[in-house]
Write a structure and sequence with these properties.
Blueprint (H helix, E strand, L loop, with lengths): L3 H39 L4 H19 L1 H18 L2 H7 L4 H42 L8 E8 L2 E9 L4 E11 L2 E14 L4 E15 L11 E14 L11 H6 L3 H14 L4 H29 L6 H29 L4 H21 L4
Antiparallel strand pairs: 1-2, 2-3, 3-4, 4-5, 5-6
Length: 372
């Protein structure tokens, strides 16, 4: 049951958080409109698409991204003002301990953190899908990969090669599919083009040449060795084939990693692991980040309350400056360990959680030295 103290602090906490993040998002939107207004007008983009498909998706994506930071800033801002007015002295003098003061903050952190957790795993990927689709359609002039001589591992024994690919028409040019058994080629298929059939969910190949190599348990009388390898060549104007490869595999990296809900991302990681993909770490980092990022809300809440609940010389400004400094350190650690995870053999799970582990010790230190 929430007491008067809980309601008082919780109202200030959530109110300050909503106000501050709404203000910064409004500023971001104004600057973004200023940056893109020429594109909006030149391309004659419908106002409905700008408002719904872009900015309505823009708000939850960036609001969630900055939520731990603004939880921290909000706490420091209103808590330091309470401390400056000696409100905490009165609360502590009434017999309430620091843990009692901390309770409404933890409740507020849970509300924001759990909401962020659900958004990261389910809502934000869907919002990103709409937002990125709008950007590719209107701002990026229809995204088209610039990659050339593309190799895709379709399984432990199958390789797809594409000389070039056009995302706008879902068509690959100069393609080949090779299969191997015990490091020996058993079949090879070449085609001039491959085009995606979105209804049948398969590829239509044109000007197809196939070569199959079969092993026959007969003696080669010229070389006096076994077995004999027999090649069979076939030509066909068109051929339909099903591959463990879709146009989604050629989307830009952000599209692939940001538009999948967590269940979809887990399945994708499993599939890419079987293929032997070299980008598994990027997807695992994203998977673990979706949980670790909301957890940072609790850590930063404890640090924020511990720092700002004491009245200090220098007033609110000094405490806000310290809060911003710690926030910058936390963000820097996130980027550093993410880079380490994607460029070395360091565990992605450990890399993503390391900033939280480090700041847990920081939070414990400030908690122990907080005004009791």
């Amino acid at each position: 049951m929430l007491k008067i103290l809980d309601k008082y602090i919780l109202k200030k906490f959530l109110g300050t958080f909503v106000f501050s993040i709404s203000l910064i998002l409004a500023i971001f939107i104004v600057f973004d409109i200023k940056d893109k207004i020429q594109t909006f007008l030149t391309n004659q983009i419908p106002l409905r698409e700008i408002a719904i498909d872009y900015y309505c998706m823009f708000i939850p994506v960036y609001g969630n991204l900055f939520s731990p930071l603004f939880v921290f800033i909000s706490i420091i801002f209103f808590t330091s003002k309470m401390a400056h007015r000696t409100e905490f002295v009165a609360i502590l003098s009434s017999g309430a301990g620091f843990n009692r003061i901390l309770r409404p903050y933890i409740i507020g952190a849970f509300i924001i953190g759990f909401s962020s957790f659900l958004m990261n795993h389910f809502l934000i990927p869907k919002a990103n899908k709409v937002k990125i689709g709008f950007e590719d359609k209107w701002i990026n002039n229809g995204y088209n990969t610039e990659d050339r001589n593309i190799h895709k591992l379709l399984g432990p024994n199958k390789i797809l090669y594409i000389e070039s690919y056009d995302n706008r028409v879902n068509t690959g040019f100069k393609i080949s599919v090779e299969e191997f058994v015990n490091h020996k080629q058993t079949s090879m298929l070449k085609a001039e083009t491959m085009q995606w059939d979105s209804v049948a969910k398969l590829w239509i190949l044109n000007d197809v040449f196939e070569r199959r190599i079969t092993e026959q348990d007969r003696l080669d009388t010229l070389k006096n060795t076994k077995p004999i390898y027999v090649q069979k060549h076939t030509f066909s104007p068109t051929k339909k084939i099903k591959l463990d490869f879709t146009p989604a595999d050629m989307w830009r990296f952000e599209s692939k990693i940001e538009v999948m809900t967590t269940p979809e991302l887990r399945k994708y990681i499993e599939k890419e692991t079987l293929k032997g993909s070299n980008q598994i770490e990027f997807f695992e980092v994203e998977l673990y980040r979706r949980t670790s990022f909301p957890f940072a809300t609790f850590i930063l809440t404890v640090i924020g309350v511990s720092i700002s609940s004491r009245k200090v010389r220098g007033g609110v400004g000094l405490q806000i400056a310290l809060g911003l400094f710690l926030s910058c350190i936390y963000i820097m650690l996130m980027y550093v360990f993410t880079t380490i995870a994607t460029t070395t053999s360091f565990s992605p799970a450990l890399a993503v959680w390391t900033p939280n582990i480090i700041f847990s010790f920081v939070a414990f230190y400030f908690y122990r030295t907080a005004q009791q």
